[in-house]
Amino acid sequence: MGIFKAAVVQMRSGTEPARNVVDFDALVREAAGRGASYVQTPEMTGAIIRDKADRANAFKAEEKDEVVAAARRLSAELGIYLHVGSTGILRQDGKIANRAFLFAPDGTLVGRYDKIHMFDVDLDNGESWRESATYEPGHEAVVAHLGVAKLGFGICYDIRFPQLFRTEALAGAEVLTAPAAFTRQTGEAHWHVLQRARAIENGAFVISAAQGGVHEDGRETFGHSLIVDPWGRVLAEVTGDEPGVAIAEIDTAQSAAARAKVPNLRNAREFAVSHVEWHAQRAAS
User: Fold this and answer.
1) Is the pLDDT of residue 127 over 80?
2) Which residues of 238-263 are buried (b: 16+ CB within 10 A; e: fewer)?
3) Pair 89, 184: CB distance under 8 Å
4) How far apart are alpha carbons 76 and 62 in whole angstroms?
5) Of 13, 16, 59, 173, which cross-links 88 as Cys (Cβ 3.0–4.6 Å)?
6) What is the pLDDT of residue 283?
């Protein structure tokens, strides 16, 4: 257990990774300068690109990626845990991973996580997304041990799948994460309630940096980067969709306290599902 300051960095990533790295650098420095020892950036920190061909040209292998290199350097220079919410990474098989990275205060890579759940949806306003057409989904939940806390990874659409975060909480995670690029439509409807629900049902902090505003490629994201405590209270928020930083103190003892008050993780039971059929004609006779 431990106490530390956490920061969420809200961005409006464009189509050029080099320009996004400049914004990333400035915002991470701001967060560290305000006392944060753990800093998280949004999903697709490196670039948000709708065009498939442009995406293929922009994303690089992990060892050549500009965001990964900048994060490794910054974490060591600033002496912080730096969590890149995700960036597009070209895999050896030619496919693209939506991958998160966590670097330690000495620049060492602590862990990586590939987004498991693909955002394949058709929304009311005509928006249609098929992440599975571009990205190869991950297959493994990840919990990182930071000394002061155990942290479980998620990315954006993962927040709608409680079983992922329940698995990480049962593995000891007191802090859960879901850095995102939520669409404005889904964010307005569900963003806050999903973050608070995952916190409450797991007795865990939920930290989720977000993309916000109208991006170069035309998409619009919701913003409202959040830090939520284990009782479901919002501790810090970047209100609106402008780039910025929000900071809150994390005391993992609060996770233990919430789980002691409402021990649903311990009280869960296995159960079967029965299918019961009712036939009107048979009932009438």
Assistant:
1) no
2) beebebbbbbbebbbebbeebbeeee
3) no
4) 18
5) 59
6) 55
Query: How confident is the model over 224-239, as pLDDT tens digits?
Result: 999 999 999 999 999 9
Backbone angles phi, psi at 184, to 5 degrees: -60, -45
For residue 122, name the pLDDT band (cuts at 50, 70, 90). confident
| Four-CA torsion 174, 149, 176, 272, nearest 10 degrees | -40
Residue 206 backbone phi and psi in degrees, to 5? -125, 125
Question: Cα dihedral sign for 95, 96, 102, 106?
Answer: positive
Mean pLDDT of the chain: 93
Q: Where are the domains of the chain?
A: 3-284
What are 277's two structure tokens? 């059929």
Q: β-strands 175-177, 150-152: how paired?
A: parallel
Contacts of 153 (CB under 8 A, 6+ apart): 100, 102, 111, 113, 141, 142, 143, 144, 168, 177
**Domain 3-284 class in CATH:** alpha beta
Express each pLDDT in 166-200 by its tens digit: 999 999 999 999 999 999 999 999 999 999 999 99
- If pLDDT is split at 50, 70 and 90, which confidence band does 51 have? confident
For residues 67 and 98, is the Cβ–Cβ distance under 8 A? no
Measured at the CA of 200, the angle between CA 169 and CA 3, to 5 degrees, comes to: 65
The pLDDT of residue 131: 72
Catalytic machinery residues: 43, 115, 156
Output phi, psi for 122, to 5 deg. -125, 115
